[in-house]
User: Fold this.
Amino acid sequence: MTYLSIFMGCSIDETALYIFITCSAKDLFSFTIPKALPKGYKFYLHVSGRMYLGNKLNIMNFHAFVEESQNFSRENGKTCTYTLKSEGLVECLLVFGFIDKNNKEDLYAIQIFPDGTKSIEKTD
Assistant:
């Protein structure tokens, strides 16, 4: 995978929040959780994708950090890493953002491909 670095920011209740995402030449995917969140907000991140199996005739789905995504147990300011073998990668999808105390979501989706190209969009 081509080296990739994404810096995303948004503002919640006049508080600027940022996420840093990198994919290195050594097949390591990493992201850093924001250090502080506005009161009453949870940080949401779901990492998934598709990979070829062996001879590239079959594809399997993968999900990273499932437990942390389901119970919002990430530690603020922590950098998390995941080994992502780029040679078999079809795509990687990150959905991240913030959920308020009323469960209103403010989420973004980043789709990453093995050649390093990406698309970023706000979800509805």
